[in-house]
Specification:
The chain has one helix and no strands. The protein has 71 residues and is mostly helical. The N and C termini lie far apart (91 Å).
């Protein structure tokens, strides 16, 4: 094993790190796809909840408006 403090040892250590990263890029890509899917699901759930809340709030606002007009 070469001394990592020497120039050749440092270059070999850096190449080893890059080689290791290149081998694990497939796992990173799969992880990124999983996060995109999870984010899309969360956004979809938020849109559905926002639609439900908007409908409920609009209905209640109309009822309050009608009560004020009737007084």
């Amino acid at each position: 094993m070469l001394n990592p403090a020497s120039p050749i040892g440092f270059l070999i250590a850096m190449l080893d790190v890059r080689r290791h990263r290149a081998r694990t890029d497939d796992e990173r890509g799969a992880s990124a796809v999983e996060w995109v899917i999870i984010a899309a699901i969360v956004v979809g759930i938020c849109v559905v909840i926002a639609g439900i809340l908007q409908g409920a709030l609009t209905s209640e606002a109309n009822e309050i408006s009608n009560e004020i007009k009737n007084q």
